[in-house]
Design brief:
CATH superfamily of one domain: Tetratricopeptide repeat domain
Radius of gyration: 24 Å
Order of helices and strands: HHHHHHHHHHHHHHHHHHHHHHH
Largest sheet: none
Structural class: mainly alpha
Helix content: over 70%
CATH architecture of one domain: Alpha Horseshoe
Number of helices: 23
Strand content: under 5%
Shape: elongated
């Protein structure tokens, strides 16, 4: 009834990680320290998980110096937005993308657009979730500069992340690698896309190559671990997360993904230890708080779980699973006020097609003695997937309370045939 922990690879989060940066106009900044700070912000590749925090700091200092031209402010904002996205700070990154987009909307001449400016505007649009606009700008940038590997990579990431069009995304990653064969990010992104299609052999070929290209870089190992996990090989995934943590024992996403494996295996104490370390390294990642909330819930530590879900929602109020699990935690903890139930309603608005939402809402109504409403929710879950043991068992309990004895027996038998442990799960939370 509670939604499971989430493992994530940074390559699929928010803005694309690609080559970019800009060359400063010589002599514009008055003080060498200001020039150096601006260069530390924008030069080279977009920020990745290894340098996101210092890049945020450099960009913030550069923006505070107030020496920058409007186009430099926009690029510093855009770079900081990407860095904040890499840290999981979606609310703060949204502001940066929005301000960058305002500049590019005003600066780009629609009759004579510049490919680099179109590419940067597309990156800001991607970060804001403006998928159609971003795709159109990437298309235009590629039309103006067909050899711009960054635009192909950006468009591929957009297609993979926002539209889940993995096959077309792979075509863009192929083109990126034709233009720049050793592009680490393209290899990682293509490997991730192949894994989403279930083509694990191709995925691992790319990620093995990425690991070989950068053996001291944690990111390929983290993503390869995620692919192994999708493949149903948690032991290999754990080996990759452990290898990443030998390179950097504070790598927050390796810690978080290892914790997700441990939590899924019932090792909640180990999961909390890793998540404490992940949050200490990066306290802007909503998913880390969500996963720690799951682990605390599983140990019956409901106050701690609610606090973690609160923290996750402060960072990302659109996280439907956090709304859902906080609602459930409050109900089980006996804190079922109107605000608690509103969280279950919010989860349904954010994830209307999720059977987990319907199943959890069914349990909440069952816990509150609203049998008819519980059956409605369980029916909705079973309409999506007829073989959900918890939905069948929960519906059975509601039917028993309504004296629908035959229906109750039939649903209980079906639920226990799917999961012999389902009865214990309900009794654990005081429902039988």
């Amino acid at each position: 009834m509670i939604s499971r922990p989430i493992a994530i690879a940074l390559v699929i989060a928010g803005a694309v990680v690609i080559g970019g940066g800009a060359v400063l106009v010589a002599g514009h900044l008055a003080a060498p320290s200001a020039e150096q700070t601006y260069h530390a912000c924008i030069d080279g590749l977009w920020p990745d998980e290894d340098d996101a925090r210092p890049r945020v700091d450099a960009c913030s200092k550069a923006l505070q110096m107030r020496w920058l031209r409007p186009d430099e402010v926009a690029l510093a904002r855009l770079t900081r937005g990407v860095a904040r996205t890499m840290l999981g700070s979606t609310i703060a990154s949204f502001e940066d993308y929005r301000e960058a987009l305002k500049h590019y909307d005003g600066a780009i001449d629609p009759t004579h657009p510049d490919a680099a400016a179109l590419f940067r505007r597309a990156t800001a649009e991607h970060g804001l979730g403006l998928t159609d606009r971003a795709l159109a700008d990437f298309d235009k940038a590629i039309g103006l500069d067909p050899k711009n590997h960054m635009a192909y990579l950006g468009r591929g990431a957009l297609l993979a992340q926002r539209t889940r069009n993995y096959r077309r995304a792979i075509g863009d990653f192929d083109r990126t690698l034709q233009l720049e064969p050793r592009n680490l990010t393209a290899l990682i992104a293509r490997g991730d896309a192949y894994s989403q299609l279930g083509e694990f052999g191709r995925a691992l070929d790319d990620l093995d190559r990425a690991v070989a290209l950068e053996p001291k870089h944690t990111h390929p190992l983290v993503v390869r671990g995620l692919v192994h996990s999708r493949e149903g090989k948690p032991q290999l995934a754990m080996q990759d997360y452990d290898a990443a943590l030998r390179l950097n024992d504070q790598e927050p996403f390796a810690l978080m993904n290892r914790a997700a494996l441990n939590a899924g295996d019932g090792k909640h104490g180990l999961a909390i230890r890793d998540l404490d370390a992940s949050i200490a390294a990066n306290d802007k990642n909503a998913l880390a708080f969500y996963n720690r909330g799951y682990a605390h819930f599983s140990l019956g530590e409901y106050a701690a779980a609610i606090a973690d879900y609160d923290a996750a929602l402060k960072l990302d109020n659109d996280m439907g699973l956090a709304h859902l699990n906080r609602c459930l935690s409050r109900v089980i903890a006996g804190d079922a006020g109107q605000d608690a139930l509103a969280g279950c309603d919010t989860a349904l608005k954010l994830m209307p097609l999720s059977p987990d939402v319907r199943e959890t809402r069914g349990f909440v109504f069952l816990k509150q003695g609203q049998s008819h409403k519980a059956i409605e929710e369980y029916n909705a879950a079973l309409a999506i997937n007829a073989n959900r043991a918890q939905a069948l068992y929960g519906r059975a309990l509601a039917e028993c309370r309504l004296n629908r004895t035959d229906d109750c027996k039939q649903d209980k038998a079906a639920a226990l045939a799917i999961d012999a442990d389902v009865e214990r799960q309900f009794k654990r939370h005081g429902v039988d």
